[in-house]
Every structure is written in C-alpha cells, then in structure tokens.
Design brief:
Structural class of chain A: mainly alpha
Distance between the termini of chain B: 13 Å
Helix content of chain A: over 70%
CATH architecture of chain B: Orthogonal Bundle
Oligomer: heterodimer
Distance between the termini of chain A: 13 Å
Strand order of the largest sheet of chain B: 1-2
Helix content of chain B: over 70%
CATH class of chain B: Mainly Alpha
Radius of gyration of chain B: 21 Å
Number of domains of chain B: 1
Number of helices of chain A: 14
Number of strands of chain A: 0
Shape of chain A: globular
Number of helices of chain B: 15
Structural class of chain B: mainly alpha
Largest interface: A-B, 50 and 47 residues
Order of helices and strands of chain B: HHHHHHHHEEHHHHHHH
Amino acid sequence: MKVNTWMPAPLRGLSPSQRGALLAFVASIIILIAGGIYRPGLLQPTSIANLLLLASFIGLAAAGQTFVILIGGIDLSIPGIMTAMGILLTTRSLGQDARAWWVVPLVLVVGLGVGAVNGLGIVLFDIPPVVMTLGMNGIMGGAVLGLTNGFTCAECNSVAPPSVQTLITGQLIPGVPNGLLLWLAIAILVGLVLGFATFGRRVYALGNNATASYLAGVNVRRVTVAVYALSGLFAAIAGIAFTAFSTTATLAMGDPYLFQSIAAVVIGGASILGGRGIYWGTVAGAIFLIVLQAFVFEFNVPEATRSIASGVVILAALLLYGRETREV
Amino acid sequence: MSIAAQRTSVRIATGDRLRFYSTQNVPLLLSLGLLVAMIVLYVILFVAKQGHAPGSFEFVTTVNNTMSVGLASVGQTLVVLTGGIDLSVGGIVDLTNSLAATMMANNPGSMLLISLLVLLVGAGAGLLNGLLVAFGRLQPIVVTLATLAIWQGVALFVLPQPGGTIPNDFSNLLTGTVPALGNLPCGIIVLLLLIALWQVLRRTLFLVALYAIGNDERAARANGTPILLAKVGAYTLGGAFSGAAGLYFAAFTTSGDATSGTPLTLTSIAAVVLGGISLFGGRGSAVGALAGAFILTLLLSNLFFAGVNPQLQDLFSGLFLILAVVASTLVGRLLQRTRRSAG
C-alpha cells in the first residue's frame, strides 16, 4: 500500500473523497478571496449569497448525478428533464398560486417517473446508461418543442407562481435566500441517506462490485431503478428551483447543467467508476464551479476562457485524485 | 473442440464461411438491414410526397449531410472499441472547422497545407486525450468531457463569430459530383475510401490490439499487447477523424462556425450505437458506424416526408435510438436461446 508521505499529516487520515471535498472547498475560498482583493464587491454578503444560490441549482441537479455516478452509471438526461419540468411548472400553473399546490407535486412525480423509465430501460433491456439517458434527453427536448409548438403556445409566457418563487428567492432569515436553506436541508438528507441508510450502503456496494452485492442479497435491479428515479426527481427539483429564480422557464435552460452536474461530482472527489464519493464533495464542486465563473466574469475575460478554465480545472482535479491504481 | 480438430478444419467451405460470418456479425448485419429498410422507406415516402423518384440532387444532399457525422463516427468507433468513449469529438470538430474556415486560401498549396494542418490539430487533440487516459490512468468519459470544454473555448478564440470562407474549389472537391462517373457524389468516393481504409486497418496489429483491449484488458496485457500505446493510438487517430469531420463540414457549409460541431458528439455516439458497435468495447466495425450515420440522416428525412411535426424530431430520434438498442438486445437474446437449444 502506497503511503502518501508528501501529504500533510492531517490529510492522510481522510478518505480520497473527503480530501476531494476539502480541496474543492478550500480552492473556492482562495479564488473568492483572490477575486475579492481586486473587486471587493465579490466579498459582500449579498454577492456571496447570490453565488451560493446559483451554486444550489448545480448542486440540486448534481445530487441525482451523484447517486447515479456512485453506482457507476451516468445520467445525460438531466438537462432535458430540468427544462421540461420547468416548462411543465409554468405552463400548468399559469403563474397562479391557486394551481401551485397540485402542479408542484405533479412536476416532481413526472420527473421521478421519467427517471424511473431510464432505470427500467437500463435494467430490463441492458441498454448502456449513456445511450438510454442520451435518448431520453432527446425525447424530453422534442416533447417540449412538440407540445408547446416550438415554445409559441399561449401559456408559454407564464411565470412561476409567486409562492414557488418565494420558496427560492424569499428570505426567511434576512440575507439568506430560502433556496439555500432548501439546498442545505437536501444536502443533509442526502448525506444521511448515503452515509447511514441501508439504501445508501447498497448504492456504494453496487458501485464497488455489482456481482458481489448481488450475491450479498442486494436487489441490484431495484436499487438501479431507484437511483435513476431519484436523479429524475432531483432534476425536477432543480428545474423548479431555477425556474422560480429566473421567474420564467426557457427552452434549453437546462443545457449547461449536463456538463456542470458531472463536473461538480468529479471535482468533489467522487470516482466516475462508482463506489466512491460523498455528496458534500459535490456541494463543494458546485460552489467551486460558480466561484470560478464569477471570477472569470468579474475580470471581463472572454466567455470562451471560462469554458477552457473549467476544462483545465476538471483535468487538474482528476490528475490530483481521480487516477486509477496501476494494474500489475 | 480440441486443438487437433481446429487444425484439421483450416479449409472452410464457402457455405460454412458465410454462416460463420453471419453469426459473428449479427449486430452489423442488423444495422445494414435497418439501413436498407430506411432507404426503401425513404424512396416510398419520397415518391408518395413528390410524385417522382428521388434523383441525383437528393442523393448528393443526403451523402453530404451525412459524411461529417460519418467521419466523426469512424473516429468514435476506434475509441469505443477500446471500451472508452470520446465526448470531445464535438469540440475537436468546432476547432478544426473554425481553423479551416479562417486559414484556407484559394490556391492548391494552401488547401493541401491547411487540410494537413487541420488533420494534425485533430490528431494532436486526440493525442492529449490518449495520453491522459492511458498514461494518466483517468476515465475516458471525464477526460474527454474536460477536453470538450477546452476545445470549445479555443474554437471561440479562433473564430468568435460564425464566418470565414472555404474556397469553392475545395468545397467542390469534397462535396461536389464527378461528371465523368455519372455525377457520382464526391462524398461517396470519400465513403468508399473510408471503407477501404477500414478493411486495411482492421487487419493490422493495431486494430487487433484495440479489439483485444476492449474484450478483456487484463488478458490483453497478459498476452503482451502494448495497451498504453494502442490506447494512445486509438484516441489520436480518432482525433484525426474528428479533424476530418470538421474539415468536411467546413467544405459542406463553405464557411466556419465555432459551435457547429457540438451536436456531433452525440450524433457520433448514436451512429456508433446504431451501427451495432458495443459500447462495452471489443465488438463492431466502422462500416456499421457509417451505416448508422446514414440511418440517422435518413430517419430525419423520413420523418420530414412522413409529415411529422419538425418540432418532434428530437423526440423521435431519441425514441428510435433507444428502440434500436432494445431490438438488438432482444434479437441477441433470441439467438442465444436458439443456439443453446440447438447445442
């Protein structure tokens, strides 16, 4: 067993995913402070709260991606589901609070259902997750375009109901958007489920060795379907939250979240092969991505730089803690 | 079967040979069958809609529409054979497409030089992927996701606004027709060259190594296959094919666009899947991927002629992709069952 002698002593006791999470948190803070030296506005509490709120949308979408990547799969349908569920919210609720009480649960159930279909296709027909979720992404995008007639329908201009908007942008605690509290609650819940619940342990078992967990009595198919269903549910939550934040839903609003949801998980120290990773790492990864964006934005460098920077950061994160052990 | 028995059966009768070939290549034959079905459907729908048979214009358009996806999907095949996946295809196409459109001048020397340069840039981008995957011991899906973002960004620096020009002569060379051969589309010549190249390539030790890695990396390593070099080679050559796709797309549209390649990541994977190439690695042929690329183009044409709302295109493409995989899984299970009951 290789001992990481180059590492400072306190870090050696941590698991690779804990180190990843810690590193992403520290890096976010360093970038934020570095940016704050030149643009003190970045360090204002309102600006930080805003950045965290933006990070929460990545974090919510990536919660499902974390589960999926932990079992060794991947979900490329998150952007399609996010967009479709955001548009479902606005076009069904018509911006009325009176309709919100049934539309929001409807959106969540549809998101869960779409995710479950992903899972069923994967376990029943052995469809590779990449293909299944890629196809589903196309289906979602096409369904939205077709059903709203190219987003020209009468209801398409509707906004999110005010109560749903308050749920994200209101401030129960002054200075802290409610969306952050929601994210914190979900992060704690996901952390507990992954760390302590039987289901969470099964997710790790499945990701480490599907055959061994099957032999140990884990219902592999059921866990897989549940994980993809959860991913659909979280994509729906992210869709609702982002729609509430920007008040309207737009076509392709979910598209950036394909790259970002995977990037957040990877930067957070999870293994793309499955079986290793924690949600707090994903949280740190999401914050890191947004802070990096803000930094690039503040210094007026071309948009293209952001794309290059996030690519380089992912490679750096991978080289730091994503390397596989050498085969003998 | 004992080794002695295998030795004696070196000479195989033609009928047996055909049977062996067809049982070994079920996914490829399925995708070729699907291609034929799509062509027949296309002709029927076209005649029903237009009242006359599709002519050379439709032929040339279909071929030109398909060949950049076709080139990219051959590159994708090489990577998928090793059990990897290349998500950076779109970014490499973006970059090479922008480079070709900004740099190519209207003289033969420049055309040749810039074409070579573009292929080299593609190969270089692929080389980076390969080094990171093989020597960096990183997972292909995340490495190529990261390089996708990088090349997309670099492409925007090369060509911030859609524009640039491709000389007409160059465009005609790749996407025109050859009057001497009965107005044969140049794209078909590119296609035939690709198939010929593949027939040579698949007999090389390099491709044998890729199949070996995809089937069982450990066993391949134990047999002394140079795993790292073969992987680097697969990604590098794959990048060069993406570069060729970017060049072809520039010739087709006679201009450049730093975001034009982005859809090719997904369509190249879809073509590979429809071509019967296993995403788990080790199985499949680039000929299948080329068939898959044509199936995708014809599917869109057929949906159009069938009067399907164009807004629903993505929905049907997605559904079709999933159903094609389900169908091939079911056929595979059926064959396994009949083989088991026969043996």
